[in-house]
Amino acid sequence: MRTLLALLLAVTLAFAQGPKMTIGQLRTFLRSSIQLKHPDKQVADYIRKITLTERLLERDIEELIGEGLGPRSAEALRIHVAATAEMAKPAADPAAARSEEPSLAIPSEEQQRKIISEVREIALNYTQRLPDFICLQVTRRYYDPAGLDMFRLADTVAARLSYFEQKEDYKVVSINNQYADVSYDRLGGATSSGEFGTMLKEVFAKETQAQFWWERWARLRGRVVHVFGYRVAQPRSKWSISWQRELVHTPGYKGLIYVDRDMPVVLRITLEAEGIPPAFPIQEARNMLDYDYIDISGQDFLLPLRSEMRMREGRLLVRNLTEFRSYRKFGADAVITFDIPDELPDEATAEQSIKPPPPKK
């Protein structure tokens, strides 16, 4: 850790005068920082010192967020959007030109409405299509008291999750590989629920009146996906944030949904709270949930793969990474192992951008 901080400090001092960068150089630097997991705050501080020589677009920032760019770095980049508005467009990226990834036309407004309508129908009936099953839920809980995105592992919680007759039941089986007999509700610390359909249902329910808009094309775990943005106003929200199980606030929220191009199902959904009152202890809250096809008794079902929850209370940052493993059909003879598996690599949930089509002449 000391070595990493020393290297980051050296880089910062070396470029204290504000290095000049093209958009291509900026992307290379940020993607390297994402891969090396540099602290978000220090990357953001560095971004504020650079001078861009080409125009930066909001679309560029959204692509980098999809690849894992932190929120502070994204906000620092947005300062450059206005500052470079009058500059020339970036030169063509030779690497992108050699890419075999196709360019895809933006769907028409009518096509977009049709996609959302089809996704809504499936999302609202999602839980009815699920089989009864059990699985292993592993949650690695991290914290950072200084707010620098330098997280420390607090504990690893393994739970037996059973889904029977469209109801979820959690039973904690171990904490840090030690047997534990504690109710999930009394576990303490940051926890989450609703991964098995609740989040999807609340976003797409007609009474929620969520607003949807087109964002971009992307590739997620090898599949080409539509990415839509959405927003739910606070009066229509049912997403609650609890602090120490004493104070509860229901904020409005916004996010993204990633829809499979070939089948109108959601492969990823994100939520980010908006308008949290200043007096409420938790000031930031966001969640991301990935779905993937899982084989249960010889049949594929779209089920949760991994979720990530982040919250901020003052300077304290909390980050939960939850994975769902060892799915089995529910039954008296169903057996799963409670050995803690290795954490899924970032590549398993990484998004790759797809270039937009060339402008019409």
Question: How does this structure look, described?
Answer:
The structure is a single chain. The chain has 361 residues and is of the alpha+beta class. The chain has 2 domains: 2-94, no CATH class; 115-353, outer membrane lipoprotein receptor (LolB), chain A (Clam). The chain contains 9 helices and 16 strands. The strands form 3 sheets. A 12-stranded antiparallel β-sheet has the order 6-5-4-3-15-14-13-12-11-8-7-16, with helices on both faces. A two-stranded parallel ribbon has the order 1-2. β3 and β4 form a beta hairpin. It is globular, with a radius of gyration of 22 Å. Mean pLDDT is 83; it is low at 1-17 and 94-101.
Write a concise synopsis of the structure shown.
25% of the residues lie in helices and 36% in strands.
Q: Note the total helix count.
A: 9
Which fold name is given in CATH as the topology of the largest domain? outer membrane lipoprotein receptor (LolB), chain A
Helix content: 25-40%
So what's the CATH class of the largest domain? Mainly Beta
**What structural class do helix, strand and pairing data support?**
alpha+beta
**Percent range for β-strand residues:** 35-45%
Task: List the defining traits of the structure above.
9 helices, disordered N terminus, 2 domains, 361 residues, 12-stranded antiparallel sheet, outer membrane lipoprotein receptor (LolB), chain A, single chain, 36% strand, two-stranded parallel ribbon, alpha+beta, 16 strands
